[in-house]
Amino acid sequence: xxxxxxxxxxxxxxxxxxxxxxxxxxxxxxxxxxxxxxxxxxxxxxxxxxxxxxxxxxxxxxxxxxxxxxxxxxxxxxxxxxxxxxxxxxxxxxxxxxxxxxxxxxxxxxxxxxxxxxxxxxxxxxxxxxxxxxxxxxxxxxxxxxx
Length: 147
Description:
Elements: H1 3-9, H2 12-15, H3 26-30, H4 37-50, H5 59-77, H6 82-86, H7 92-116, H8 120-134
């Protein structure tokens, strides 16, 4: 995603002043300094509203942007071996890229949920419950494929 598109989507506003993309502060996260999902969602809404970007934040546009950002995350891993992909967070540069794309994906997903009135945590909890029923723990060691 280019800088102009990031700005229109309000993604850089989540990462800090000036869209610096400073990355994940693991120490702050471990100390509990990370806001909850609802607070982040409100921050995204306020960021977009202050810039009158509501007309651009349609379900179609947000779904497309979410897909693009998920593809950018996939791109990081595209040609890595399974072993290399398991170690991607060991290198600061690749760890930063992965965290940045995860932030972009989450930002668009939260904006998408806000526009459609979906509680993302409730939706996830309901999906896990359905999957626990659909895919019970096998008694004989038979594995089921995941969705």
